[in-house]
Automatic annotation (TrEMBL):
It is found in: Cell membrane. GO terms for cellular component: ATP-binding cassette (ABC) transporter complex; periplasmic space. InterPro entries: Peptide/Ni-bd, SBP_5, SBP_5_CS, SBP_5_dom. CDD domains: PBP2_OppA. It is a lipid-anchor. This is Periplasmic oligopeptide-binding protein. Residues 77-468 form the Solute-binding protein family domain. It comes from Lentilactobacillus parakefiri.
């Protein structure tokens, strides 16, 4: 999913993200029918910036507003959602989905095969500038359509009938059904998009939804909004909650205080809070496949910085000054994991020995801490770029953990590398993301959550032409390996696996991105709050089956 998300998601202009939830619940009698009405009050760490599926940067909470063709169940297996069933051709290159007869948008308009054709074409339209366009790579002609080399009609999707949606692939994609659970592939109502034009998705009443909930009382950058049960949802009988009031609580101490006074039922723990509550029976562990990392703008106009940021020795030097063990164990006090490379732990396992990709990937200078070696690279790099010192701005989001880490990096790097000055620029998350996409930064702490349980979820965004490669790092061999991992060698999983390992090694050796820490969140949860689905990829929280039983 990010964007300094999720947090990136966490995370950000074009982000749909609510990384943490918390809540207090009430059950009251309806005056109309005497039935119990279930209402919850949840807190969120991130605000919502757009409801536009094509322009959203991440989908932490969008799993509650939008359904896709398939759905990731509690066992993390793709199962039918808006598609009641599907068929795969013998060559693995054609998927035929049957859309449910009772599938509707929240305004009552029918969801048809054409709703998917339109949505996918809109996302890949170059004018949309979707950061999720790369996820469609592998769909026939997707890349050429996205780069304006072919018309939208050339995209490999069709609707031969109202309920039949057909997807044609360039080559078999091993994880295609997992992709189809992600909200970037959700349908859109063309009538509504046309009606609101540029303001589509910029207010609660200027969008329609295909998921279990709709949103009310929301506007961009607002700190409160409400989820209401979608009365036109195809599976509404399984949605227990009628109303979920959301409140963007920025201060973690405020969230904890609300939990302690029984005004919240579920809240994230930050810093010293983790130590205090580590033995609590209310403790809830929520690992997430989200990597926070540092990138440099290698296409920046400033000639001095451009030359410096394109120097691999300078990038290596700064990376080697960062003690990631101290970040994970001391600074963030158990809220994070020390990275072993660029791909998160617990994401994907090799097809032969079931070994975690993260345990086999190359870390090297990308995760090591070596002050002496850092100085050697630094002196070599400065000499190569003809400078005696270097000053740059590091842009970070105004979240508690990221600010702590950025201050730590500044202090550590400046102490170890003579002549280095790092100025911290703290900005709202949505501003940070917008500037990141526009290339309006010098250096940037960002993050990424995995859309699917596959190493390419982290590696593909670092390809040269990918819209999420904010630093514009380029390596032709890396691009080739990832392209082959996505489009070829899928018949031999071991070959594909080894190519991804080789690509990750190139990324770390060249320091195209510098991993900092993996999110590993701890929460306090009331025992009467049930049915919340926590995912390690894609949409982190799903409230479809949520209920309260005291």
């Amino acid at each position: 999913m990010n964007h300094y998300l999720r947090k990136l998601l966490l995370l950000a202009a074009g982000i749909l993200s609510v990384g943490t939830l918390a809540g207090c619940s009430t059950q009251t009698k309806s005056k109309d029918n005497g039935k119990l009405v279930r209402t919850a009050n949840l807190s969120a760490n991130y605000s919502i910036v757009t409801l536009d599926v094509s322009k959203a940067q991440g989908f932490d909470n969008a799993g509650n507003l939008y359904d896709s063709l398939l759905y990731m169940n509690k066992k993390h297996k793709p199962v039918p959602a808006l598609a009641s069933n599907y068929h795969v051709s013998n060559d693995g290159k054609t998927y035929t989905f049957t859309i449910r007869k009772n599938a509707k948008f929240s305004n009552g308009d029918p969801i048809t095969a054409e709703s998917f054709v339109y949505s996918w074409q809109r996302t890949l339209n170059p004018k949309t500038k979707s950061t999720h366009a790369y996820l469609f790579d592998g769909v026939k002609n997707a890349e050429k359509v996205n780069f304006g080399k072919l018309p939208l009609s050339a995209l490999g999707v069709e609707a031969p009938s109202k309920r039949t949606f057909v997807v044609h692939l360039d080559r078999p994609i091993a994880y295609f059904t997992k992709l189809m659970t992600y909200q970037a592939f959700s349908p859109q109502d063309k009538k509504i998009v046309d009606k609101y034009g540029a303001s589509y998705g910029q207010a609660a009443n200027k969008a329609v939804f295909s998921g279990p909930y709709v949103i009310k009382k929301w506007a961009p950058q607002s700190n409160t909004w409400t989820f209401k049960k979608n009365q036109n949802y195809w599976d509404k009988k399984h949605v227990k909650m009628n109303t979920i009031h959301m409140n963007h609580v920025i201060d973690p101490q405020t969230s904890l205080s609300l939990y302690q006074t029984h005004k919240l039922d579920f809240t994230i723990l930050i810093g010293d809070q983790v130590t205090h509550y580590k033995n609590s029976t209310d403790l809830y562990r929520g690992p997430y496949s989200y990597m926070n990392y540092l990138v440099y703008n290698q296409k920046i106009k400033n000639p001095v910085l451009r030359k410096a940021f394109n120097n691999v020795n300078i990038r290596k030097a700064i990376s080697l000054t960062i003690d990631r063990g101290q970040i994970a164990n001391t600074l963030l006090k158990g809220e994070s994991l020390k990275p072993t490379g660029f791909v998160t732990k617990y994401l994907a396992y090799d097809p032969t020995h079931n070994k975690d990709f993260a345990s086999k990937q190359f870390g090297g200078v990308g995760v090591a801490y070596d002050s002496k070696l850092a100085k050697d690279y630094w002196n070599k790099g400065l000499k190569q770029v003809g400078q005696k010192n270097l000053t740059f701005n590091l842009m970070v989001a105004n979240s508690d953990n990221v600010k702590k880490v950025s201050e730590f990096i500044k202090s550590s790097a400046e102490k170890q590398l003579p002549g280095l000055t790092i100025n911290l620029q703290t900005v709202p998350q949505e501003v940070q993301y917008a500037r990141g996409v526009a290339g309006d930064f010098e250096a940037y702490i960002t993050g990424r959550g995995a859309d699917i349980a596959d190493p390419t979820a982290f590696l593909q965004p670092m390809m040269s032409k990918n819209s999420m490669n904010y630093g514009s790092w380029h390596n032709a061999k890396f691009d080739q390996l990832i392209s082959q991992s996505i489009y070829t060698n899928n018949a031999n999983p071991s070959i594909r696996w080894n190519k991804m390992l080789a690509a990750e090694k190139i990324l770390m050796q060249d320091q195209g991105a510098t991993p900092l820490f993996q999110n590993y969140n701890l929460y306090l949860k009331r025992p009467y709050l049930h049915g919340i689905t926590h995912n390690t990829t894609g949409s982190q929280w799903n409230y479809k089956y949520m209920y309260i039983k005291k």
